[in-house]
Amino acid sequence: MLIRRVPLAILPFPFDYLGKTTLVQYKGPDDTADQSALVKLVIDALMVQRREGQWMRSDYTSWVIASSFGRNLSMTGGAEILIQDSPGPDVRRGMVDGFPICLVDLNDVPVTADTLPLSMYRKAGRRSGW
Fold it and tell me: What are phi and psi of 99, to 5 degrees?
């Protein structure tokens, strides 16, 4: 999924971390986000970057939204996430191959009117494995 953000829109947490252009890799309740999902996200980001002719990777944000994160999500020598901060228990931000990235854990997203669409996809009882 590709999301373009209107620069003047004020969005609630965690959506305030959407970039100017955001690529989202959503993993369903029975799927685990792993290294292959992360590699696919980086490849997709590179293809969008080339298609649009905008070469600054910082212009794009990648999101992985999942109820379960595999221990092999980030791999040294592969697609490796360098975590910079955790603005909440449900969001971790960092960089992957020069692209800003957000990891959104559907198990911990606070249920509010704004985040209800995300929360509806969460499967009860699943825990992440950051």
Answer: -100, 135
Q: Which two tokens stand for residue 130?
A: 């950051």
118 or 45, greater pLDDT: 45
Tokens of 55: 């070469």
Cα(60)–Cα(99) distance, rounded to whole angstroms?
A: 6
Q: In a 3-state reduction of DSSP, which class is residue 98?
A: coil
26 by Cβ neighbours in 10 Å (0-12 / 13-18 / 19+) ranks as middle
The pLDDT confidence band at residue 111, using thresholds 50, 70 and 90, is low
Q: Which residue has the tokens 């699943």?
A: 126
**Cα separation values, 38 from 32, 48, 73, Å:** 11, 15, 7
| Angle in degrees, CA 110, 2, 43, rounded to 5 | 110
- Whole-number pLDDT of residue 125: 42
* 82 strand-pairing partners: 95
Q: What is the pLDDT of residue 35?
A: 96
Specify the residue for token string 């955001």. Answer: 22
CA torsion sign for 38, 44, 47, 53 is negative
